[in-house]
Description:
Three copies of one chain form a homotrimer. By secondary structure, chain A is an alpha+beta fold.
Amino acid sequence: MERLAALNAAYARCIDEDRLEEWPGFFLEHCLYKITTADNLSRGYEAGLIYADSRAMLKDRVAALREANVYERQRYRHIVGLPALLEGGAVETPFLVVRIMRDGRMDLFATGRYLDRVVEENDILKFSERIVVCDSARFDTLVAIPL
Amino acid sequence: MERLAALNAAYARCIDEDRLEEWPGFFLEHCLYKITTADNLSRGYEAGLIYADSRAMLKDRVAALREANVYERQRYRHIVGLPALLEGGAVETPFLVVRIMRDGRMDLFATGRYLDRVVEENDILKFSERIVVCDSARFDTLVAIPL
Amino acid sequence: MERLAALNAAYARCIDEDRLEEWPGFFLEHCLYKITTADNLSRGYEAGLIYADSRAMLKDRVAALREANVYERQRYRHIVGLPALLEGGAVETPFLVVRIMRDGRMDLFATGRYLDRVVEENDILKFSERIVVCDSARFDTLVAIPL
């Protein structure tokens, strides 16, 4: 449990400190990363707003973000709750993300839960699967950054 | 400590996933559940905005909520901090609840702290007492849902 | 890790319950307490918006706050994430603070991270250093209260 909490803390710091190039390193080479909404999930829609099934796709995504350069104008702060072990081996962790604009304004950017499959690779915990289930279906710039 | 954190995580998930029928199961048959405000508490007011002293009353409350059907229109997300053991055996845990409206808007719904008495029943931790102390005295629809 | 989490929980409760006179007790006699911003930190600016290098200075600060009496009109709620151990022995912990006005309005007051050096003094963990790095550079009344 403590290792899962530490994994989540490291993941959040990586994004909040804008070290996006390190972000794909939290996943296995063959993985599933998806951002979806609670509504879509409950309707059984498989497609995500963002979808990647390899570390290479995650790297491409970061490269695209760096090129678009939109990410720099704001800051994010993840507050992550405690992981809960579900039956069947998945892990669920609630999160809240605050966005801080360049002029100092803050707003609630996203809330939701991570649905994860975690495995050990060379003694390090990695995500074989991370499905980000957002509570809200309102996504303006949300699609731009990793959650 | 880890068991208390897990109890809080399970409690929050139960509400956030709208599994309200399971919510009374977190309490002993004879219990105290109360929602009050920090102001009322410091003035020594005993009455709560919501008050129940048995699991049956909690079940009634859920039934009433389902009938009123108001709960469905929004979603909630609890972010719960770490439990602190107080002198005398009570447990205090800070919380924050975000409300997500159907149209996607999010707002800070409530903050405060849980003041709990926890006991073990058949190897499972349950609340003999949970007093929800809200920081704000502003309660519009707040009285509708469990916190 | 558990002791660090407990230290953070106790620190947050002290402020949120307005027991400010106890706040300097979380620090060593000779310490560093600083509030700064992420922008200032990344530019290498040493000066903080608030700076104290002894417990006596922290006590002075509390006395000034009590005299100014501005603090009483609102309440604060800290939600503190899990501490991460950094290389070199520092500890980093994310935080979010909600402000609750007397009339019940709530807003996001501050987000950021604590950069700490923690030592043991008579079996009790204390801060030899706590640098509060706020994500936002917007500080209106922020400078008034301890974070």
